[in-house]
Structure formats: C-alpha cells, structure tokens
Amino acid sequence: MKKIATILSLFLVLYFWSVSPILAQSKVIERAITNGVEAKTIVMLLLLPLLATLVSVMHYILGVSGYGIFVPTMIAVALSATGIAGGLILFGAILMISILSNLILKRLKLHFWPVRALGLVFISVGVFGLMVISTGLKMVDISNISIFPVLFMILLAEEFTRTQLVKSKKEAIKLTLGTLGLAILGAVLMGWQGVAEVVLRYPEAIIVVTVVINLMVGNYTGIRLTEIKRFRKAIRKK
C-alpha cells in the first residue's frame, strides 16, 4: 500500500507540474514546429519512451518477450517508416539472405568478423535488388526507404543468428516473433493519428503517464499472464 500511495503522490506532483503554464511543454513544441522542426519527428521522439513502456508492460505483465527493450522499439520505428507490410517483407528478405550467406560462408572457415562483413555484402546486394523489384509492384514499394530501417532490420537478423548459435533455433524464433509482435503493436500505435495529436497537444501528460506506468510495473510482483497455465496447480493449492 505504501508503494501505491507513493506512486499516486508522485503522479499528482508530476501532473500539477506538467499543467503549470510556466513549464508546459506544448508551448515549446509549438515554437519548435514554427522554427522548422517536423511535427512527425517530435511525435516519434516523445513516443519512444511510451513504446519502451509498452514493451516493458508486455514483458512483465503478459510475459511476451523479445530481444530486450530497445530492439523492439527500434523495429517499431522502422516499421512505421516502411509500413508494416513492407517492413515485414524487408525483414524476411534480410533474414533469408543472412541465413543463406551464413551457410555459404561457413564452408570457408573464416574468422567471425570477416564472415559478418561478407554477410553484409550479400544483404546489401539483396536489399538493393529487392528495392529495384519493388518499384514494379503496386502493392508494396520499399524503394524510397532510408538506410536506418534497413540497419534496424539487419540488427534483428543478426540477433536471430547470434541466438541460434548461442542458444537454439527454437529460442531464436520465439524471441524474433516476440520482437516483431511488439514492434507491430508499437508501429500501429505510432501510426494512429489520434495518438500523434495527443502527443503534440499534451506532451506533459505523455511523460507523466510513462513515468507512472513504469513505476507501477517496476513494483509488480505478480505472475505473468502467459505463465498462469504453467503454474496453475501451484495457484490452485494456494
């Protein structure tokens, strides 16, 4: 109860601080947009902590795991830039190229870093070819994406390869699917126009909500929802 009271007290303090006309950040945002800063960039910056919070909630409350907290967040940003369909196609292509290149380069018995560098050669050429092909497709076009979503997708593919080597293929697939699921959820949140409007109008409220949710999740000691079936017998005994 003391923890809950502390969190609620902090919430009230942060709330009254946020609505203060002197410290209100919405005025700063308006000035930034007037001075040429893109509204989309501001929205994405302010949503990053909220996306990370979403990943945290999904992990500790629901039990959905991915590659840490930053990789799903970065992939969500990438998917919001490429579109979910285009991003998934891009990641699938990068992952397949990465797996095939590893199978080919494994026979050369080279050191680890040269293998990774040569793998990037395959990925770069493959992604370029995919971009060229996508220009002729009416449904999905990834020819205009920037380098950063591609780098994030490569990072996820590398995590898949590393986990497969260190742990197991099953664990790699599980974490990759979890990461993609969290990223898709985050991308949907970032693409929702209503969320963008709230962020621009009430940025201080987003900060307060993010802080409070993390304080509550950080003190959560209950069982994760996905583990209820696993510990059902123990729960019944109690």
UniProtKB/TrEMBL annotation:
Q: Coiled-coil annotation: which residues?
A: none
Keywords, alphabetical? Membrane, Transmembrane, Transmembrane helix
> Would the keyword Transmembrane helix be found if you checked this record's keyword annotation?
yes
Q: Which domain of life is it from?
A: Bacteria
Q: Where are the transmembrane segments?
A: 40-57, 87-105, 117-136, 142-160, 172-193, 205-223
So which residues are the signal peptide here?
none
One Pfam family name from the record?
7TM_transglut
Q: Domain 7 transmembrane helices usually fused to an inactive transglutaminase: where?
A: 41-233
Looking up InterPro entries in the UniProt record yields: 7TM_transglut
Q: What is this protein called?
A: 7 transmembrane helices usually fused to an inactive transglutaminase domain-containing protein
Which source organism does the UniProt entry give? Answer: Candidatus Shapirobacteria bacterium CG06_land_8_20_14_3_00_40_12
